[in-house]
Design a protein that fits this description.
16 strands, Carbamate kinase, alpha/beta, about 290 residues
């Protein structure tokens, strides 16, 4: 009986959030350890199915860097990175698309469907969903007299437009979209795009209620290693300048900042290693991880 009462109390606690987020869109960037551990993979599938059944519209964008690395190693193709981005020539792009679209995407879709959901796999090339242009970056020099130098990353792209018509159609038919972060350029070629950036762009175009980035860390931490449960967007530049936010966390918070500026209501960086991390964030008073808000 005590267990039954505890379950009832959990449901009662979640009721205001179910009411608040019903018929709202939540975009989830799925990556890290949550995509590798078998129990966490199943928990993730069940979480998004539950969200769909209670009226929330989950949209999933997934990564797949470790899986790509394994295939490249088998094919004896060496990857190089510049400013954290994989240099992607034509041969590497073929492998990226094969792994993300042909393997990782189908595995996620298959698991959700096996667990009782209705998922459909897409890449950014389907229906021109994610349109892209070639990303350009420049070197910087300590010598201010030297001009910055253009670096060619190959087929690495950045999002220029998101065509959400196909996502709206899938939502109307109660499907869960699962999107591989491969975009299409004006020339019809595929582009490798950071999954966080794709998730942020899709969330912005859909005016999502939430953008949730699953990571392999607890969230954003201060200089003492303590979790920052909430950050206002206007403080981010100061945190970066003081190196409270550094390394791989910078593009994630920048992604959240951009999404907020373009109309997303609230963004979150949470620990995907925790069981049912998404449900804990959405349906509890305390939440988990770090929320970034306007």
């Amino acid at each position: 009986m005590k267990n039954g009462v505890a379950i009832a109390n959990v449901l009662i606690e979640s009721l205001p959030y179910i009411r608040e987020f019903s018929e709202k869109t939540v975009v989830i960037k799925y990556g890290g350890h949550a995509m590798v551990d078998e129990d966490l993979k199943r928990n993730f599938a069940l979480d998004v199915i539950l969200m769909k059944y209670i009226g929330i519209n989950p949209v999933i964008v997934h990564g797949g860097g470790p899986q790509i690395n394994r295939f490249l190693e088998k094919m004896q193709i060496t990857s190089s990175y510049i400013q954290g981005m994989r240099v992607t020539d034509g041969e590497t792009m073929d492998v990226v698309e094969m792994v993300l679209v042909g393997k990782v995407n189908k595995e996620i879709v298959g698991l959700i469907n096996h667990c009782g959901g209705k998922a459909v796999g897409l890449s950014g090339r389907d229906g021109d969903l994610v349109q892209a242009s070639k990303m350009t970056i420049h070197t910087t020099h300590d010598d201010t007299a030297r001009p910055p130098e253009l670096i060619d990353l190959g087929r690495v792209g950045e999002v220029t437009h998101v065509n959400v018509e196909i996502l709206n159609t899938l939502d109307e038919q109660d499907f869960i979209p699962v999107i591989a972060p491969v975009g299409v350029g004006e020339d019809g070629q595929a582009y490798n795009i950071n999954a966080d950036l794709v998730a942020g762009a899709i969330a912005a175009e859909l005016k999502a209620q939430k953008l949730i980035l699953l990571t392999d860390v607890e969230g954003v931490q201060n200089s003492s290693g303590e979790l920052l449960s909430s950050i206002r967007s206007e403080y981010i530049e100061g945190f970066i300048a003081s190196e409270v936010i550094s390394g791989g966390m910078i593009p994630k918070v920048k992604c959240c900042q951009s999404a907020l500026e373009k109309g997303v209501t609230k963004t979150h960086i949470i620990d995907g290693r925790r069981e049912h991390a998404i449900l804990l964030e959405i349906f509890t008073h305390e939440g988990i991880g770090t929320e970034i808000i306007r």
